[in-house]
Amino acid sequence: MKTLIKNGRVIDPANGIDAPMNILIENGKIISVSEAGNEDADKIIDASDCWVVPGLIDMHVHLRDPGQLHKETIKTGTRAAAAGGFTTVCCMPNTSPVIDSAETVKYINETAVREGAVRVLPVGSITRGLAGESLSEIQKMKQAGICAISDDGKTVENPALFVAALKLAKELNLPVLSHCEPEDEITERDIKLAKETGAKLHICHVSTAKSVELIRAAQKAGQPVTAEVTPHHFTLTQNDNPNGKDPNFKMAPPLRTPADRAAIIAALKDGTIAAIATDHAPHHENEKNVGYENAANGIIGLETAVALAISELAGVLTPLELVAKFTSNPAKILGLDLGHLSVGATADITIIDPAATSIIDKAKFESLSKNTPFHGREVTGRVVCTIIEGETICLQTA
Ligand code: DOR
Ligand code: ZN
Ligand code: ZN
């Protein structure tokens, strides 16, 4: 069975392609990318007026499974991912139990194969139980298939323990994804510690101008430091939170100043920030509607990321640059053979209508949680279709 995606604008940053092309898929693989239009196919997808891009990769997602299934599950979270155009998500370890053992990695892998709509790559915790006291069984988790390590949600406070983790990560060729709190201080510390060990450090959800500066300086000095930004940090500032009291504008790190937001957008443009990642953080109403002070940190992001990126960044980034932030760049950071449309590649493909306008409606979300500050926002750009290993999933929620 052959599927042809025709008439689209193929944007494939890894191969430097931005041109009208047709893509032919068979047995879950891309078998040709060409200007010719008449390949014999059993199924034709007409991508007129659309971008045809590598399946998007979100390297920072909270799926809440195991243990917090009232917020999200592997099933609902991956359906939200597919609806948002993502074909691969990396799930953070602050679950219950924490992803700190090969056994829990195995649980996630098996559940994702059984119930998941997209590819799920678990991130193992750095410390056992996220307690910051001793290292998790990182080597065994690597064998079980983790793509990185992180104590996301927390900073590893003990510098000696963090250095031990960096050394092991370097040995195992695993990136270390760092949640820096307080952001600037820990970003500076982690860059310094990573430099001493030669490990690959990735700074999660960068939100301040100062952290951008620190990362840029380290990169200029040749250090392998990378960074991501969330759609909410490049879209919103602290001034957008109505009276400072709407719990759907509460997250860690928090929304910052317009100057910070401008620095982040400049860092996306100059490449200091290579990836856009959602930090999709589902919470139940009962954990949000408890007064601002007591509300849980975090907002969902999988189903709004593409539209926000196109709406906010299309005037700043070229389409190739924008698509790279969701595909080839995160693939490179994680060392994955994904995020490109080469002949022979896994047929993970996302089709996006960059001009379609819509109003974000949380009632249409696949996610089990609805904690978004973007409900009712008018946006441009819509995911039309998500193809995973040649299988088409069209969950239009926008
Ligand atoms: O806002 C956040 N929510 N930041 C984090 O680092 C953790 C996340 C969560 O797990 O809810
Ligand atoms: Zn975090
Ligand atoms: Zn997170």
What order do the helices and strands come in, and which of them pair?
Layout lengths: L1 E11 L4 E10 L2 E6 L8 E4 L4 E4 L1 E6 L12 H10 L2 E6 L10 H14 L3 E6 L13 H7 L3 E3 L8 H14 L3 E3 L4 H15 L3 E3 L5 H12 L4 E5 L1 H5 L22 H13 L4 E2 L8 H4 L16 H9 L5 H8 L1 H7 L14 E11 L18 E11 L2 E3 L5
Parallel strand pairs: 1-4, 1-5, 6-7, 7-8, 8-9, 9-10, 10-11, 11-12, 12-13
Antiparallel strand pairs: 1-2, 2-3, 5-14, 14-15, 15-16
The structure holds (4S)-2,6-dioxohexahydropyrimidine-4-carboxylic acid and zinc ion (ZN) (2 copies).
One zinc ion binds next to loops.
Could you explain the architecture of this structure?
The protein has helices at 74-83, 102-115, 138-144, 159-172, 183-197, 209-220, 231-235, 258-270, 285-288, 305-313, 319-326, 328-334, and strands at 2-12, 17-26, 29-34, 43-46, 51-54, 56-61, 86-91, 119-124, 148-150, 176-178, 201-203, 225-229, 275-276, 349-359, 378-388, 391-393. The chain is α/β, with parallel strands linked by helices and 398 residues long. Strands 1, 2, 3, 4, 5, 14, 15 and 16 form an eight-stranded mixed beta sheet that branches. Strands 6-7-8-9-10-11-12-13 form an eight-stranded parallel beta sheet, sandwiched between helices. Strand 9 (148-150), helix 4 and strand 10 (176-178) form a beta-alpha-beta unit. The model has no long low-confidence stretch (mean pLDDT 97). Bound molecules: (4S)-2,6-dioxohexahydropyrimidine-4-carboxylic acid (DOR) and zinc ion (2 copies). One zinc ion is lined by residues 152-153, 179, 204-205.
